[in-house]
Amino acid sequence: MCQDGAVLSVTIADEPQEQREGLSGVDSLLETEGMLFLYEEAGYPTHWMKEMLIPIDIVWLLDGTIVFIAQEVLPAKEGEELVHYRPDTLANQVLEVPMGFVEKHGIFVGDRLDVRLP
Hints:
Elements: E1 9-13, H1 16-21, E2 33-43, E3 56-62, E4 65-73, E5 91-98, H2 101-104
């Protein structure tokens, strides 16, 4: 849950294969959908737009606190070298959401997201 009360329904990616695939091949996300990547250890998880069809915002967190944000990340174009997006500080969770979500909900580094796992 975001500080403004917005609630997301996320797909959890906590296995290496799920994390490699991410949202590749997904052709749409509702405003309330996303993918949450969970890493066992804090590190500098790198994300890229390989085989992505939609633009997204990427939010890196450390135990629920936002530490880095990449907004308006566009799918890679055919033949283009893949850009690697990586935080400049430790993170153990990464949230991928539809492009514009961060701006619409006023999300900033330092904010806490209420991440409830089953």
